[in-house]
Amino acid sequence: MSAQAKFTAPSHDLGMTSTRIGNLPPEILSLLFMLVHQDLKTRKGALSKGMSVLSTTCRDWHLLASSLPELWSSIEIIVDQNPKVMSHWQSQLTMITTFIERSRNLPLFLTLEFDALDSPMLRDHTKRFATAAFQLLLFNFYRWHSISFDFGIHFEPPSIPEGAAAPLLEHINVMFGSRYWQKQDYYTALVAAAPSLRSYTVVGTSKNPHVPANLPWG
Asked: So which domain of life are we looking at (predicted)?
């Protein structure tokens, strides 16, 4: 959701190409949507903007895209230095809610990235947004399948609720800034809630003392 992401690739100029492929049957158009979606996931910051274009080009595209939960099960949140993005943080929360709702009950693939912020005012505003966004995701903790979180040095995520379970969670990739590298309770709670965990990576200290010794597969 970064303002830095530019959705300008000619192959994805959906508005210009819609008239040429508008007569395709829904089955073929659905496959094209899925291919575009797969490519969007490889471009940092492009997913939310790309999905917005895909679902607002015309009424038929909107109805079709909204009916395909696979297009909405990957959620990318990128918070950077651009104050314009943070000035519209309520619309960003609405977009996250839209992704969660349209993905129905599919497992969620989550990417969160919080850059270091120089301005104290922007930092405080960002923390409020990040906390609200993370709470939306925690409401669907049981649907987490793969997470890649870079919390930076200014954001400490809300605790994993006691007794919460993420039975679908298989892949964890977490990065904390140096201020929170000793947050062993967070890592322990996250791993303990994921009985199906297959891979676990923590970045922030070379020794990784917060990685539990008794991983589920050990």
From this structure: Eukaryota
